[in-house]
Amino acid sequence: MNAFIAKYPLTLFLLRRIGIAVLLLVGVTIVTFALTNLVPADPVNLALGDDAAADPEIVAQYRKEHGLDQPVVMRYLIYMGNLLQGDLGVSLQTSQPIAGELAAALPATIELAGVSVILSVVLGVGLGTLAAYRRGKFSDQLLRVISLAGISVPTFWLALVAYYFLFYQWGLLPGSGRLDPTMWAPDHITGLYLVDSALTGNWEVFVNALGHLMLPAIVLTLYSMGLMVRFTRTSVLEVLNQDYVRAARAKGLSPARIVTAYVLRGAAVPIVTVVGLVFGGLLSGTVLVESVFAWNGLGQYAYNAASNLNVPAVMGVGLVVGVIYIGINLIVDLVYGFIDPRVRTA
C-alpha cells in the first residue's frame, strides 16, 4: 500500500476526494429530506387545496399514492429510489416534473453566474495584485475601501439602486428579463442565450441578451470582486516576502514575468479556493438579484417555491444547490492536486 501511495500519489488523492464527495452527496439528501419534512405545513393540504383536503378519502388516497403513510425511513428510501431514477417529484404549483423545471431554470443562472465569475476573477485578481504591490499607498487604500464596500452592501439593495439609475433614470442598460419582449429566444441547444445565439449565428439576439445580462452581472460582480480583491491581496503579500521572489528580482526579471511566473503561481491555491466559493455562492445565492431583474433562473424559481410553500420544489432546489457546491469543491480539490504537490499527500 505504501508503495502504491509513493508511486501514484495523485491517483490516490483523486480517489479519496471523489469518495468524500459521494458521501457528502448522501449527506445532502438526508439533510434536504429532513429539513423539508420538518416544515409545519401539511403537504397534503398544499397539494390538494382546502376543499379536497376536507375529504378523508381523497386525503388517504393521496397519502397512499405518494408514500406519505409510510414511516420516515421508508419515505426516505422511496425518495432516494426516485432520485436515482432522476425523479425529483412533481411541483405543487404547476403539476409538472420538478426535474424539468429545474433543467429549464438552471441555464439562466449558470449564464449569469459564469459571466459574473469571469469578470470577478479578471478584475479581482488584477486589482488585488495591484493593491499588494502598492501596499500602504493611496491606490491600495482606495481598493481596500471599495472591496469592503462591495462585500458589505446587501446585493438586493445594490440591485435596486443599479436598476433605478442605470435603467430607469439614465437608460444605459436594458431592464428586467433575459431579452426584450419583442425578441424570440434562440434555438435551444444549451439553454444559455449567449451560447445558443452565437452557435446559430443570431447576432441580434446575442447583443440583446448580452445587454440584459450586464445589469445583474454588474451587481453580482461588485460583491464577488470585493471578495477576490481582499483574498488576492493577502495571498500576494505573503508570496512577495518569499525568498524565490526576491531571487527572481535579483536576477533582473521584468515585473510582469515575476508576477505571472512566480507571484500568482505561488498564490494560486488560496485564489482557486475563493474562485470556487464565489462561483458556488453565485449559482445558489442569486435569489434576490434574479427576483429584482425578473431573471428566470434558479434563484427566482427558489423564491417562488418558498413563497408558495411548494415543498417538493424547495427540496429539489436544495438538492441542486448542494450538488453544485460539492461539485465545485471537488473540482477545486482536484485542481489543488495538480498545482500543489504538497496537497497530494495531505
From TrEMBL:
It comes from the Bacteria. GO terms for molecular function: dipeptide transmembrane transporter activity. It is found in: Cell membrane. Residues 106-336 form the ABC transmembrane type-1 domain. InterPro entries: BPD_transp_1_N (IPR045621), MetI-like (IPR000515), MetI-like_sf (IPR035906). It holds the Pfam family BPD_transp_1. CDD domains: TM_PBP2 (cd06261). Keywords: Cell membrane, Membrane, Transmembrane, Transmembrane helix, Transport. It is a multi-pass membrane protein. The keyword Cell membrane applies. One of its GO terms (cellular component) is plasma membrane. The chain crosses the membrane at residues 20-39, 112-133, 145-166, 205-223, 267-293, 313-339. Belongs to the binding-protein-dependent transport system permease family. This is ABC transporter permease.
